[in-house]
Amino acid sequence: MAKRTSFLVSVLGVVLALCMIAATPIVRAETFGDLDALRQRALEAVNQSRSDNGLPPLTLGENLNEAAQAHAEDMARRRYYSHTSPDGGTVQDRYVAAGGSKWELIAENIARCDNCPPPPTEANVERLERGWMNSPEHRENILRHGLARFGYGIVVDADQGLYAVQTFAGPGTPRGASEGEAAGEIPHERQVAVALDRINAARREAKVAPLAASDALDTAARALVPDPQADALSIGGGGSLRDALPAGARRDWRTLSTLAAACGGCGTAPTAADLRFFVGQWLDGGNSRRTLLDERFGALGLALVTDGKGKKVALVVLGASR
Question: What percent of the chain is modeled with pLDDT above 90?
C-alpha cells in the first residue's frame, strides 16, 4: 500500500521602516502607553482601510496582540529589526506560542522609528497606518482576503526608538482559485468529478485508461481521511485499508492505495479550487504521480474535510478490481 503526504502552511511577512523626527527625553527603558487605547485605534485604522476597499472588518485577537507585543518588545530589547528573531523565531512561531493555530493564514507588518519620543500615541498609530498603506507589500497584508482577526504591539525604547507590529490571522482562501472564481462550497459528487477530470486528463496524456468513481472506495476514503483537528496526517488512525471498505466489497479489490495531503490557510469550505490544488500537488510529486497514473488502478474514492478554521485534508483511495 503506497501513501504520500503533503504539508503546506502559508506564512506571510513584510517589513517597513518609518522615520519621524522628534526629540527624545530621558525616560525609563521602555514605554508602552495605553495599549488598550492604541490597539483600538489601530484596529479602527485598519478596518477603515479595509472598508474603503470593500473588505469586511477584522476583530482584535488576544493571541495576536500577545504575539505582536512580544515581537515589538523583543526587537527593542535585543536590538534587531526583522520578522525573524535572532534565534530563528517567526511570526508563525510567535502566534502558535500565544495559543494560535499553525493552520491559519498568518501575516505580519513591522515598523521602526528611531526618533519617535515616548510614550507611543494614537498619532503614531495613525502615521504608521498611512505609511503601511502607502507601501504595496504592507498594503497587501492589510487588504488580504481570508483574514478575520488583528493584533497590535508597540513600544518605545529610550535608546532604540519605536517598534510597532501588526499581526493578522484568519482561515485564508482556497488554493488554486482562478481570478474571479467563486469560492462556493461544492457537494461531494462534484468534488469527485473535479478530481477525476484533472487526474484523467493526466492519464490520457500518459495513454492510460481513465479512472471511474467508486462508492465503495468513497466509503473507505471517508473512514480513512485524517482528522483535520489533529496535527499529524494519520490515515485512518492506523486501521486496515481493506477493513475500511464496506464488508460486502472487501473481496472486490486486488490492490488498493492511498494519497493524502493537508493545507493551511485554505479557507473554510470544500471548493473546486481545493481539488484542483491537491490533485496538482500529487501530480507534481514523483511517487504520488506514479500512483495516480498507475495503469493497474481503475477506480477512485475521495474524501475532503475541513476544520472550518483554515485547514483542509484530502484523501483518495485508488483501487484495482479483481
Answer: 78
